Amino acid sequence: MNFFHLILRNMLHRKFLSLLTILSVTATVAFVLLLSLSKASVEQGAQKGYGPFDVVVGAQGSQTQLVLNTFYHIGAPVGNIPGRIMDMVLEDSGVEKAYAITTGDNYNGFPIVGVNPEYFLTRYGDQKLQEGSLYSETGEVVVGAYVARMLGLRAGDTFTGAHGLVEGAHHADMDDEGHGESGEHHDDHESFIYTVKGILPVLNTPDDRAVFTTLDYAWAVHGQVPGEREITAILIKPASLLGAQGLKTKLEGMPQVQAVYTSKAVADVVNLVDQGAGIIEVVTMLCVILAAISILLSLIAAVNERTKDVGLLRLLGKSKTYVLMTLVGEGILVTAAGLVLGLLAGHAASYVLKDALFSYAGIQITPFQWSADHIMIAAATLAIGALASLGPALRLYRMDSLSLFKA
Predict the structure, then answer these.
(1) Are residues 274 and 322 in the same domain?
(2) Which of 2, 94, 119, 383 has its CA 20 to 30 A from that of 249?
């Protein structure tokens, strides 16, 4: 009987216990891998989320909320600022490109964003749409790839929007006279028809889950006259770092307006996520310890069952090293089986969860991406399996063959 056949026979002899050990390792590896993929996706998504727009201008309030709503389409806008701020920004020599946006409405829970269509060329370069063309007239829209896929939209389709950034919030904050809580003009969402002009390519950013239209859509829907027109935020691509600082200083001197370095606000969010990930890592370590204990208990049970068999092998001339390696090999083989299944399960879980995470936070997991983390996970898993196997194996290694047989 060769070495590997003996290990396999021993595993099959204790099918149930071997299966439980394998499943324990599988669950741990899958959890660690899913955490690794999620963390990498958060970092990549955070970096890609704002593109070349290093400064964002909006109403005073939370900087984090301003950036998350503007670039990641999460949460509600901080507020609005006067449209004349955009004229001031465009006149500044430190600005290479700037785009005003208007938000506040949704279609089936996906935000409707008003912005100059040139934004896509500045942000993504000259990419070809999946179908159709960019909008040019009020009421025309282009739809993010994820929105189009989830809602089955095609070029030529029409729909009506709703007030607010949550599906079902239509007119929820209107009083009996058709004014909002702050007394703005009557909204006319139900009679304002949007026409889909095109479907954006897959951009792998939060823009995949938004609907884009002309800047003036909000003014048309909400009945704002020229003197009262407001915008939600301004995305700025500075000509230089010095120009960005000068513009930021000038705008912050204005009442009810803030200018934010996008990278700093995003870094604050990532740091907050990392703090939460620290708690998850503690849970992960507990899972790793439990998996190691599972391997250890499985092999201790094997030692107690197999003492006479090992004694017979020794009397037949097998060396102590051979006995040691059979037990360690069994532990490594069980661990390796759990490792392979865990890697497959982790990638499968990330594939299942990717749409939910992208819909909620605009972070897109790449389910089948391989990285250096895979090598680290595999090496650490096999090392833990080998170490957990070594204790029970050494116990038999130290006993002489006659004592083993009498046992």
Answers:
(1) yes
(2) 119
